[in-house]
Design a protein that fits this description.
726 residues, alpha/beta, Oxidized Rhodanese, domain 1, Protein-Tyrosine Phosphatase, Chain A, 2 domains, 5-stranded parallel beta sheet
Length: 726
Amino acid sequence: MASSMIERGQSPHSGVQSRTQSSQFRHPMLSLHNSFNSACASSIRCPSSSHGPVSAPMTPPPQTPAAFDVNSSSSSFFDMLPPPPTPKPYGNEQHQLGEDSDVARRSNFSSISAASSSFSLAGLCANSASLSSISPASSTSSMSSLRTSVSKTSSEFNADVEAIIPICPAELGMIIASKPSKITLLDVRPYAQYSVERIKGAVNICVPSTLLKRPAFTVPKILDSLSSEQKMSLSSWATSESIIVYDSNTSALTNASIAFQVARKFLHEESFHGQIMYLKGGICEFSQLLRDFVEFGDLSTPTELPTTQSSARLCESKCVPILSGLRLPVFSKKQPVNPFFSNIRQNMDLLGGVGDPIPVRLPSNCTESKLNRLPRWLKDVVCTPEGAQRIADRFLDIEKAEKGRLESAFSSMCVITNAIANVTNAISGKSEEQRYSISAALERGNKNRYNNIFPYDHTRVKLTCNAGSCDYINASFICTKNSEKRYIATQGPLPNTFADFWSVVWDQNVRVIVMLTPTQEGGQVKCHPYWEDTQYGSLILQLLSEQETLLSPITGTKIRVRKFSLSNTELPFSSLREITHIQYVSWPDLGAPADPVDLVALSLLSGKCNASESNEIRPVVVHCSAGCGRTGTFCAVDSVIDILERKKEYGNCDKCPTDDLVAEVVHDLRTRRLSMVQCLRQFVICYESVLVWKLDQIDAEDKAARDAASDAALPFCETAVSEKCS
């Protein structure tokens, strides 16, 4: 055997710096034993060579349970949806909530830290002198710092990518053959895939990206989430010469990839002084070239339920067939206790709670007198030191309530049993938490973009189709109590659902589509362009205009507005319909937050475009990638603004019929569709956007009062002037 191929940086104790410097060289190919060469020479190809298609190993696909059609009835619309807080009929069922209960003005915000800030909110309410720190200049500086931070994040990403060394399957094979005890192999795929196929000696350590993106979720917390058996396998990771990360088939690291996020955590771990590497091509390519180093077959049932299965990303493995990202269970004695564990996002996302409390940022036009005129429920989270913690606690309650609903929906081991149980529960009058069902989504999994975002059966949109045809689309009817706004929240359409998407637009008389995502983010497809063809089934789509326009003159944010005409060849006498498509791309998925001013402006713009001369209430189609996080945030902000406009008592500074209107609306949205407002940062943006809108309303009221007083004084001035002249 050749000696170690791993060259070291300057010093074994130089930490991240030495690993960054060492990433500038490539490992020399060392000579191997003749038998190893003869076995691999014909098949080994380095990353620089061209690769043919990678075929999957002969692993049988999971078997889909027999379908049980519980959605054969015709679709119902918003009028049939009950307000959640009170039990009212929807179809033949009763639903009741569980116990858990123009354009913008100034875009400059002052960031308030929980520990230290430019001013104290408590002091703001007690001492008007502290208001001097809320100046446009300081706010502009704050927003400039935010943009600088985004730029800094990009440069940090590039530096980390350079520090993580890529290796090809041949190189990994030589490392394993020469020094197996000096390396730590990390498999970051979901446990279901890891249990079927894995590199010998690898430890499964898959964590959802929502947790990995949190700075506070460090390596020790990752290790704490593992079972005792996995911890034992990783007991010597800190003394390893190299940590090698691999997934299914990643050939280049992106900021959104799980492999990069895991490698980055270990890269910045001070106790580790070795090198961080990742396997180019993943296990798919490795298993094709070096099958002797790969283990196949199901693992024995672990002593503890693995908590490292991914619940926040679409499985992209080419090695283990899946059904459009939805891994339906193959029932066996060796299966983990809950086969749907990874389909419940909160199982992993709530390991460290919802994250550190995030204070509400104040607009630059905020003054003490204006804060005193806010409704009590909004003042409680903006003007008190406990406000940030109060918001975090309420969001945690919302997350726990949804987790309970999903656990109930997944409690049965197969779709048929769950569907029958729902009927039984409806008859026996069990609680609403036990009557939530997602059976249609599980049966038609090939139409889902992600494996943990489904529509509830009682609010899902049903396609108008012939008897016996599939009426499923991953879309939900959305409405909230006390608001007249109506939405259809859906995922970014897949190529096989383009026709379904436009069919919903036609059937539900949609005139406005709000798209809150670019087609690609970080090298990943977030939404396929569903408007580029001209015909989708019987529907003819014609692009009338497309332009980039300014959303807010204050923030300078631009949006892309498209105008389409939509007609139906099966209804030749029906008139053409004009569809407005608004695409807002300045909001990365789970990344830097959107500007609250932009959200208010987007709400006003969509409402203006959807206005009808006949005052007809038409739904707005809203989607991002999964149709929940950014989609839910927009729907929540738009609904709260509508409620404050129509129900003046909710904006009353003294008496108000709610403890927290935003939390109530978000909880309401969650009963209609999963994960609406997905993370704490998005939840806080809802408060910030409502605050921006409310302060603008106060400014408008003050201006109207001054104008009225000026107009009232004008006749007296004219009389005095005329008397003087006479």
